[in-house]
Amino acid sequence: MGFFNFKNKKIQLEDDIDETMYLSLKEERRIAKENKKVFRDYTKLKRRKNVSEEEYLTQMRDSANVVEIDDLHTYFYTDVGTVKSVNGVSFDVPQGKIVGVVGESGCGKSVTSLSLMQLVQAPTGQIVSGSIRYQDATGKCYEITDMPTDAMLHIRGKDIAMIFQEPMTSLNPVFKIGNQMDEVVLLHVEDATRESAKERSIEMLNLVGIADVEKVYDSYPHELSGGMRQRVMIAMALSCDPRLIIADEPTTALDVTIQAQILELLREVKDRIHGSIMLITHDLGVIAEMADLVVVMYAGRIVEKGTVQEIFKNPKHPYTIGLMKSRPGSQNTGDRLYSIKGQVPNPINMPPYCYFYNRCDKAFAPCSQSYPELMQFSKTHFANCHLYDPKYASNLKDEKMEKQNG
Ligand SMILES: Nc1ncnc2c1ncn2[C@@H]1O[C@H](COP(=O)(O)OP(=O)(O)O)[C@@H](O)[C@H]1O
Ligand code: SF4
Ligand SMILES: [Mg+2]
Predict the structure, then answer these.
(1) What separation in Å is there between the alpha carbon of 364 and the centre of ligand 2?
(2) In a mutational test of the pocket of ligand 2, which residue from 354, 359, 361, 374 has the highest number of ligand atoms less than 8 Å from its CB?
(3) Which residue among 1, 17, 92, 386 has its CA within the 20 to 30 Å range from the CA of 188?
(4) Is the dihedral of CA 12, 15, 20, 26 positive or negative?
């Protein structure tokens, strides 16, 4: 453990603590002052009133996509420095497809999806740069990062719905399920009346396979099981015919049989509404079963993306390969579950080279010198790793020779 320094504040308790992790009081004051300015500027921007639509209407790169994310940066301006939670993320969600976003806990999956909903915890959390484009059913395209909060309210929960890991955090414990579901319909569906809202809620509860619909409609959230609550959340998300469902670890809190049922339900639902799903999980098994396309995240960046076949049959990035090995039931594990050694770098102080360097068993000289460029393997398959960069092919050959010789 690092030594205790009187004047300085220790910000992370690790065994081999780095000097740069100490903050002087002067440094602390500087950060606080800078953050205050950042908060003021962003808050002003978000609260703009009467903004004409022209300011945030845009064009998609490809009209077959519902969402296009380009070079997204979402930071948290904390007391100890700027956490670059999402640090240059780009991927598309095509119409009618399930895109799986996978990576260890803390790699920025949730912050990416919250950015898409403009739900990142402000003022600390802010989308700093990049583009998130969304195409609605009429073909109109919105630049979400430019939308003021009140305009975003029309899209959030209606066009794009979100299902969280723990439904209790999104359900209000003091209102009955029926009331909460009706509210969503009343808020988002034009000309909805109390009666039509109830009808819609009941229809959705039926759709998600709830047997005793009237009873559930009249229950409080705590009276239902976890699996049942997740069904209610899905029913609620569906009640406004969303074009995109973001499901953030939707089955993590459930036991295995219920998990399979909920996944099956999500798939059915997607086909029924002809929508898309962004499925966030740390579980590769879920991805293999559900996703059409896969995005692998590590420390705020995408390290590999491709179709589910490409990622599972032919993973390129050593991190993806490590994830595959650490899957329960994978052949390479033997008796024990393989886990990737080492720690993710400190998010406040990312190195200027490959973020996976300290954990990678394939690392060679260039890996500690620069961040790898995007390498393309097919129309859909990409990874950021120096191993595949033709520029470094000779380094790789030399290192192999050295190893063989000694
Ligand atoms: N409100 C917050 N304040 C500061 N840092 C945050 C906040 N929310 C998330 N982070 C940081 O952002 C990073 C990404 O978090 P998250 O997207 O939640 O990860 P996950 O991939 O597990 O969903 C983590 O390092 C986390 O500590
Ligand atoms: S760039 Fe180097 S350190 Fe990074 S994943 Fe590839 S081989 Fe490993
Ligand atoms: Mg998360």
Answers:
(1) 7
(2) 354
(3) 92
(4) positive
Residue 340 Cβ contacting ligand 2 at under 6 Å: no
Residues within 5 Å of ion ligand 3, judged at the Cβ atom: 110
Q: Which of 31, 73, 76 to mutate to test the pocket of ligand 1 (most atoms within 8 A of CB)?
A: 76
Ligand 1 site, residue 125, Cβ cutoff 6 A: yes
Q: What is the distance in A from the centroid of ligand 2 to the CA of 275?
A: 36
Token pair 């809190």 is at which residue?
253
State pLDDT tens for residues 84-141.
999 999 999 999 999 999 999 899 999 999 999 999 998 999 999 999 999 999 999 9
Q: Copy the structure tokens of residue 330.
A: 């994978």
Contacts of 324 (CB under 8 A, 6+ apart): 284, 312, 315, 330, 332
How far is it between the farthest Cα atoms of the chain? 80
Atom of ligand 2 nearest to the CA of 354: 4
CB 28 within 8 A of CB 16: no
Interstrand relation of 374-376 and 382-384 (parallel, antiparallel or unpaired): antiparallel
Whether residue 331 has its Cβ less than 6 Å from ligand 1: no
pLDDT in tens, 221-260: 999 998 899 889 989 988 888 999 999 998 887 888 888 8
Q: Tell how far the Cα of 90 is from the centroid of ligand 2, in angstroms.
A: 20
Kindly provide the residue ranges of all beta strands, DSSP E only, lying in 144-283, ordered along the sequence: 160-163, 244-248, 276-281
Contact between residue 235 and residue 207 where contact means Cβ atoms under 8 Å apart: yes
Query: Could you identify the atom of ligand 2 that is nearest to the CA of residue 318?
Result: 5
3-state secondary structure of 85: strand
Residue 161 CB neighbour total at 10 angstroms = 26
pTM value is: 0.89
Q: How many CB atoms lie within 10 A of CB 183?
A: 15
Residue type, 295: V
Classify 19-49+57-146+283-406 by CATH class. alpha beta
Close Cβ partners of 233 (under 8 Å, ≥ 6 residues apart): 163, 164, 167, 170, 171
Looking at the predicted structure, is the pLDDT value of residue 16 above 80? no
- Phi, psi of 396, rounded to the nearest 5 degrees: -65, -40
Cβ(303) to ligand 2 under 6 A? Answer: no
Q: Where are the domains of the chain?
A: 19-49+57-146+283-406
Query: Between the CA of residue 54 and those of 57, 117, 149, what are the distances in Å?
Result: 5, 20, 16
